[in-house]
Every structure is written in C-alpha cells, then in structure tokens.
Amino acid sequence: MSNVIDTFRLVGKMALITGGGRGIGKAISVALAEAGATIIIMDKDEVSARNAIYEIQGNGGSAFFLKGDVTSNKDVIEVVKQVVKQLGRIDVLVNDAGIVRNVKAEEMSWSDWFDVINVNLNGLFLMCQQVGRQMIKQKNGSIINISSMSANIVNWPQPQCSYNAAKAAVSHLTKSLAMEWAMHNIRVNAIAPGYISTELTKYGLTTEWGKTWIDLTPQKRVGTPEELGGLAVYLASEASSYVTGSIIVIDGGYSIV
Ligand code: NDP
Known about the structure:
By secondary structure, the chain is of the alpha/beta class. It has a single domain, classed as NAD(P)-binding Rossmann-like Domain (Rossmann fold), CATH 3.40.50. Strands 3-2-1-4-5-6-7 form a seven-stranded parallel beta sheet, sandwiched between helices. Helix content is 44%, strand content 15%. The protein starts with 13 loop residues before the first strand and ends in a 7-residue tail after the last strand. The structure holds NADPH dihydro-nicotinamide-adenine-dinucleotide phosphate. The site of NADPH dihydro-nicotinamide-adenine-dinucleotide phosphate (NDP) has 29 residues, from helix 1, helix 4 and helix 6.
C-alpha cells in the first residue's frame, strides 16, 4: 500500500494547462511539474509562456508550449491532437484561461459580453469536450476548472456581471461533467479562488476597489497564485481519487459571510 505522500506524486502524468503562461496558470504549471508531471502549456502568448517553460525546465521539470486560443475549436482540436501524438495521453487538464471586463451592465457592448462568455465558458467547454473524448478512450483523467468565488458571490464594488455569470456556469458545468463522466473514471472538479494578485487584478489593486476587496476579506490580504498550487496537485493526483464534482473555494475567508 502506498503512503499518503506518494498519492500526491504525478510522475509520468501528462498535464495540459490552458493560460499557463502567467498568473494562476503558471503557478499551477510549476506546482504540477514539481510533483513530477510533464507540462504542456497552451496559451495565446508565446513570449510569457516561454518564461513559464524555462522556469519549469530550470527546476529540472519537463514542459512544452503549444500555441492556441481556447475559443477556436480548430486550435483546441489541433492542440489535443499534437499532445496525444507526441506524448500519448492526457492525464490532467487544467482550464485556467480566463478574462474579465469590468463594465456596467447597462453600458456593456455585445462584444464585451460575448468575449467574456466565449473565453471563460465556451472555450472551457471546448477544451473539456476534446480532452474528455481522449480521457474516455484512456478510461482515466482529472479535469480541474478554474472557476471563481464569483460563481457564488457578487463582487463589490466593481461591475462584472458577464464574468460572474460565466463563472457560475463553469461551476455548474463542472458538476454536470463530473456526473456524466464518472462512469469513465474521469474526475471533474473546480477551484474557486478569491482575489489573487495577477495581471487580471493588477488595475483593481491600485485603486479603491483593491482597498474594498482587502477590507471584505477576513484574512485582510489578497492571495498569491502559488497558494493555489497545492490544491491543484491534490485534485490532479490519486490523493483526491474519491473527489469529483467538487468546487473548492480558496479565498482568505471572503465567502464566509
Ligand atoms: P491572467 O490574466 O494573469 O492570466 C490569464 C492567462 O490566460 C493568460 O496567460 C492569457 O494569455 C490566457 N488566456 C486568455 N485568453 C485566452 C484564450 N482565449 N486562449 C488561451 N489562453 C488565454 O489571469 P489570472 O491568472 O488571474 O486568471 C487565471 C484564471 O483564474 C482565470 O480563469 C480567472 O478568471 C481565474 N480567477 C482569477 C482570480 C484572480 O483574482 N486573479 C480570482 C478567481 C478566478 P494572453 O495574455 O496571451 O491572453
């Protein structure tokens, strides 16, 4: 029987991470690599993804970059095809790619609404569908969707109704896929972070918004991307073998009230 630490190891596992070039996706890529996984970063921006790859390789890990936009079904099909061709399988999928537009509902353009739903929800579904088909063939896999506490609460004071709606859908899609694919030995879970210091929150953190965010967070600070790495390793690994359809919040206590 393996000891508990061994169940967290990801040696020999192939992990595909969308948006892995920076922020939360990069921190999760680094953490999964430290646990032993081979990392494939799918991102739109090759320059920042290369930095993530070099960091992982510098730590003695294995990492590759494949350029792709999650909203393009053509890109999604091609990336999944390339990973399977080159590495044989996909054991872990992390759907991290996401965007936000802080626009008031009454002033929002159709493209602002559509872009957020398209990247955060439609792109995530395309990835789940394409990788899910491969995992069904393998009869094994773990999918980790990066949702948000915004799936459960409405952020204040910044307006972001499209983002909140998309993340609520991501959390429920996670449970729906967990139900459909449990029979194929595929687990589907989500991480729901609170405020994390990244490019996505950079502007807000320099304004009064940031002060309000910290004030409303019981731990009185924002989180770092690295603070999500441990949970990602847990959900990717055999340590969480009986966990599926779970949405796990990491938010410094923001959602307590
Ligand atoms: P960042 O903006 O730092 O990183 C997002 C990454 O996703 C970038 O590398 C970006 O690449 C990539 N990306 C965006 N659109 C696409 C696309 N269409 N196809 C492929 N890659 C894409 O954000 P975070 O690290 O903060 O956020 C990561 C995830 O975590 C998101 O889903 C976000 O909603 C979620 N989250 C973040 C929180 C926070 O406080 N930061 C809180 C809760 C959830 P490029 O720059 O080239 O577009």
